[in-house]
Amino acid sequence: MSPAPVSASPADSDLVRAARGLPVSRTPVWFMRQAGRSLPEYRALRAGTAMLAACQDPDLVTEITLQPVRRHQVDAAILFSDIVLPLVVAGVDIEIKPGVGPVVAKPVRTVADVDALPDLEPERLCFLQTAVRQLVAELGATPLIGFAGAPFTLATYLIEGGPSKEHARTKAFMYAEPEAWSRLLQRLSVSATTFLTAQVDAGASAVQLFDSWAGVLSAADYAQRVLPHSRAVFDGLGEGRVGEDRVPRIHFGVGTGELLPLIGEAGADVVGVDWRVPLDDAARRVGSGRSLQGNLDPAVLLADRETVDREVRRVVQQASAARGHIFNLGHGVLPDTDPDVLTHVAALVHELTAAPSHPTTPGA
Questions:
Q1: 153, 192, 221, 347 — which has fewest CB within 10 A?
Q2: Which candidate, 275, 269, 170, 263, places its Cα nearest to that of 222?
Q3: Using an 8 Å Cβ cutoff, are 295 and 330 in contact?
Q4: 42 is annotated as an active-site residue
Q5: 109 catalytic, yes or no?
Q6: Which tens digits make up the pLDDT trace of 6-54?
Q7: Which pTM value belongs to this model?
């Protein structure tokens, strides 16, 4: 098969084609947390505006989402948002505290707390659809990736009351209150589906479901107590859409090496891989029916240029075992990262994979 032509629309872009396992003109690149973090123009724009307020301002969302696309020449934009935003919009009292993260005013600790959680009403997401429509108009042929947190990860914030290393309260609740746990994750899956559907209906070309903390679970617990609810998000998103109308789904978690096959089974077209598992090994674990995304260690970007180039080449080489590949980091951009290094990595991946010697046909 010959390489794909230069895309004239997001549906024909290298990112969407790689996600579907189709030939590409070069490996597409984007970076998790590229919308901000290390960019001085982002920090200047955000000055004086709280994170959750910025996420609900369509003009700010549009500009922040576009900044890394302009600077780094990446192949996709990722919606500027926050993992807890659907909960906040629904009415849960959450504050993002600098240096800490999301803090929940009244954590979920009882069965009654689960049943008292407010539902996310679609009509509250007008700001989100306005931002997505603005972005789609600005991006042209560059695809926009929609964003949402997976049910398990949102549950950890609600139960722990904020970020946690052990997630002990979450797992204790999961074991001790199985029926309430199931109801909680069911409600959160409906919320995530509502949040993503609003983005897809407004023009997003792909979606990524972040299950940031799923790696704290055993494979057995994930399969029984979490996977069905993540699958429900993807199944709900696909209602009424088949073939080319079905937007590609990316599913990502941190520390999920033992869960990779299960993460794919949740309904992903693309399985995101963190830096702990080489992509050729990940391809064997996931199987031939799904593409991979990843997986340069974000810390590598703080090293010297020779090291960066060597590691980028390694990732590209190992990814040749996958059905399709979207180059990314194995987690988000670190705040101390030099933006010029990100620009260089995007250009290097494009150079390496556009060469005639590089197989752009999946599985080659």
A1: 347
A2: 263
A3: yes
A4: no
A5: no
A6: 567 999 999 999 999 999 999 999 999 988 778 999 999 999 999 999 9
A7: 0.94
